[in-house]
């Protein structure tokens, strides 16, 4: 049996100009909003999240990531390119190997905040 969905509309039309002015003054510009939405899209892939969790623990190469996550090096490399292009991971070369790590502590903070949110009652 379908539940009745409560309408999310006001019963009367009353515009609160003072609140709208505050919102207008604090709303980021469209470019920043777009960039923020694009950043959050990167977190929308469980493989990328799994890679980030590995990088929380250690700096690793593609071989290590592929072995740990039971994936091909090609698949891992593809996801690392996306993460790197979005400044979530960084790399350094050591001889013939490239090691990946978190770009900064913001990445861990974003994930931690997301986990806290989904674990709320």
Please characterize this protein's 3D structure.
A hairpin with a 2-residue loop joins β2 and β3. With 121 residues, the protein is mostly helical. Strands 1-3-2 form a three-stranded antiparallel sheet. α4 packs across α5. The chain contains six helices and three strands. The mean pLDDT is 93. The longest helix is centred in the last third of the chain and has 14 residues.
Descriptive labels:
121 residues; mainly alpha; Arc Repressor Mutant, subunit A; 3-stranded antiparallel sheet; 3 strands; 58% helix
Task: Give a concise summary.
The chain has 121 residues and is mainly α. The chain is built from six helices and three strands, in the order αααβααββα.
CATH architecture of the domain at 46-121: Orthogonal Bundle
CATH topology of the domain at 46-121: Arc Repressor Mutant, subunit A
**CATH top level of the domain at 46-121?**
Mainly Alpha
Low-confidence runs of at least 5 consecutive residues: none
Look at the structure and name the CATH superfamily of the domain at 46-121.
Winged helix-like DNA-binding domain superfamily/Winged helix DNA-binding domain
Helix amount: 55-70%
Encode the helix/strand succession as letters.
HHHEHHEEH
Over all CA atoms, what is the radius of gyration? 21 Å
List the total number of helices: 6
Find the structural class using helix and strand composition: mainly alpha
Could you outline the blueprint of secondary structure elements for this entry?
Layout: H1 17-26, H2 30-42, H3 46-57, E1 60-61, H4 62-69, H5 73-85, E2 89-94, E3 97-102, H6 105-118
Antiparallel strand pairs: 1-3, 2-3
Helix pairs in contact: 4-5
């Amino acid at each position: 049996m379908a539940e009745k969905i409560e309408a999310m509309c006001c019963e009367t039309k009353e515009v609160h100009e003072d609140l709208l002015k505050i919102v207008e003054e604090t709303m980021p510009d469209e470019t920043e909003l777009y960039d923020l939405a694009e950043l959050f899209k990167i977190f929308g892939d469980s493989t990328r999240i799994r890679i980030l969790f590995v990088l929380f623990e250690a700096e690793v190469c593609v071989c290590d990531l592929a072995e740990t996550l039971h994936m091909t090096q090609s698949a891992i490399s593809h996801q690392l390119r996306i993460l790197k292009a979005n400044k979530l991971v960084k790399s350094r070369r050591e001889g013939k190997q490239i090691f990946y790590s978190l770009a900064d502590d913001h990445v861990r903070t974003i994930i931690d905040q997301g986990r806290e949110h989904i674990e709320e009652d």
